[in-house]
Amino acid sequence: MVDVSKWPLFTLLSPPELATIRQACVFGTSANEAIYITHDDEVFGFGFNCSNCLGTGDSLSTIVPKKLDLLRGKKVVSLSYGSGPHVLLATADGELFAWGHNGYSQLGNGTTNQGVCPLLVATNLQSKKVREVACGSHHSMALTQDGEVFAWGYNNCGQVGSGSTANQPSPRRVSSCLQGKTVTGITCGQTSSMAVVDNGEVYGWGYNGNGQLGIGNNGNQLTPCRLAALQGLCIQQVVSGYAHCLALTDEGLLYTWGANTYGQLGTGNKSNQLSPVHIMAEKDRVVEIAACHSTHTSAAKTQSGQVYMWGQCRSQSIVLPHLTHFAATDDVFACFATPTVMWRLLSMEHDDFLTVAQSLRKEFDSPETADLKFSIDGKYIYVHKAVLKIRCVCVCVCVCEHFRSMFQSHWTEDLQEVIEVDQFSYPVYRSFLQFLYTDSIDLPPEDAIGLLDLATSYCENRLKRLCQHIIKRGITVENAFALLSAAVRYDAEDLEEFCFRFCVNHLTQVTQTGAFWQVDGALLKEFICRASRCGAFKN
Question: Which helix (H) or strand (E) is 489 found in, with range?
Fold first, then answer.
């Protein structure tokens, strides 16, 4: 499953907020706008809000997600965005909503007024149910459930497919060569349009200066034109980049055509192609292709799960498909596209699958599955002998010996279901065991001192560093001297220096706390001498 937090904008959200997300889309000239849908079918927008593209009802930027109340309860099935940007959204009921930039009537409402909130697009679509939407730079397309294509907006190159170059203020059915055909998929380049029909044929129209229509020449087309070079092939999917296209056949073959300035065709050179070219012929069967009209990046995923990328990748031109370590084509756009937009509405269906690490974390302190429990201060901590034995391999020698010896057959503890622990407090020992399950700790600074003692006893340096980090984050005037005392006691030199500097910087307040006068005389004397050498008592 793709991690939405790979897109920088989503790092603004807390883990609980991220957990609510079912679908998401990052867009904008700098990938600085985002819309997401929750599991409860609520729609939120946040980011820069250029041209009111967030649909929040105002023109204000926001780093705090705002709810789009007009879309509450609407199950979203398709979403696309333009360069203005403008946004199109289709619901499971077949409704079409639009908002954002409207300088060329790309919202389809018959005006050029910007849409500050979602508007229902109904002209010529009253009896239609829209199932897919696509946006070019400033034009729009919608595919209905019965396979009809409607287009509107900017039409300077014929991208609306109306037979002219006049802008189209409201949805108009694209007919001509598509008349009587059932379209199964649509996609837009910046100023071009493509459609796939149910028999595997591909049609293109609009701007063709770079050969992005794939028809063998670079002349613009005002109406749909079939890609004759794909005759005999059954195309299942077509995606459009800024000025190039990728097509996938039902046999897993990949074809590319159009602009190639950045190597986005994957042909090994930077020459434009006016007709489709077969690439990745020596690779495994391709099952998914990816491109986006606002980037020059291409990606593909094979049947074996390998993900390739090429084109403009972090300002580098990669002219041949490059094997990545990603698990999804979406990751290519999150990490290497310019801008780092999403090439599709990303779905994050949270299923019941848990990774091994997540399963271990879940089962810590679980009475249902544990075969051993530690008793501390009258409380139980439930663990698994096998996990502790396995973790011995991953941590330090002292911990290894501690648990391995504990579970040797000739030791009585191996036959016990309860082991008493009296050297450490319950919060401390629980945090230690939880660390063995999760590699992380979560406890207040005062308890971290006790855990630091345990980490020192077991020579567990990583745990020791984590404790020191927690203590540093939680230092206050009230506890500073107690933390300094603990750092000295447990030989944590870096922490000792940090606490000492804090005490000196807040000397007057620290010396008035009870912790300062409760330490032993030797430490107090050493602190005063050291502080004096630092000039802390100069007038």
Answer: helix 480-489
CA distance 334 to 2: 10
Pick from 512, 505, 513, 502: nearest CA to 536: 505
pLDDT tens track for 326-349: 999 999 999 999 999 999 999 986
* β partners of residue 140: 135, 152
DSSP single-letter state for residue 106: T
β-partners of residue 254 are 248, 279
Neighbouring CB atoms inside 10 A of 297's CB total 29
Q: Which three-class secondary structure string do you get for 470-488?
A: HHHHCCCCCCHHHHHHHHH
Closest CA to 47 of 26, 33, 68: 33
Q: CA torsion angle for 10, 13, 15, 19 (degrees, to 10)? A: -70
Three-state secondary structure string covering 41-75: CCEEEEECCHHHCCCCCCCCCEEEEEECHHHCCCC
Cis peptide before 339 (omega within 30 of 0): yes
Q: Under a CB-based contact definition with an 8 Å cutoff, are residues 140 and 150 in contact?
A: no
Closest CA to 483 of 539, 523, 455, 531: 523
- pLDDT greater than 50 at residue 411: no
